[in-house]
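Email to the structure team, subject: Pyrimidine/purine nucleoside phosphorylase model.

Hi all, the expression group asked for a predicted structure before they design truncation constructs. Nothing fancy, just the tokens so they can compare against earlier work. One-line instruction: predict Pyrimidine/purine nucleoside phosphorylase, return tokens.
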Amino acid sequence: MSQFDNVTVVQKANIYFDGKVTSRTVIFPDGSRKTLGIMLPGEFTFNTVDKELMEIISGNLEVLLPGADWQTIKGGENFTVPANASFQLKVREITDYCCSFLK
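Reply from the structure team: attached below.
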């Protein structure tokens, strides 16, 4: 899907790691949420509350998920992070992403 129709976009940006990771929240009519963002090169640790589907639109990164080994993810690929978990990213180049929060 290249666009989202009939949604609400939260004006205030989500800014993490001194601006190296930013996103905007998109809210759908059914109440579900996604964030659309950009990650600059660097190493980051994130914590989840909900289960998350991370779709990498473009870019290149490595992800370390709980109980797994490092894996390389490129544009067009995705990965799922469990709820209430911590995961690490090594972003190798500017990465465009879409994160869906799954219930």
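The domain at 8-97 is CATH 2.60.120.10 (Jelly Rolls). The chain has one domain: 8-97. Ping us if the truncation boundaries need rechecking.
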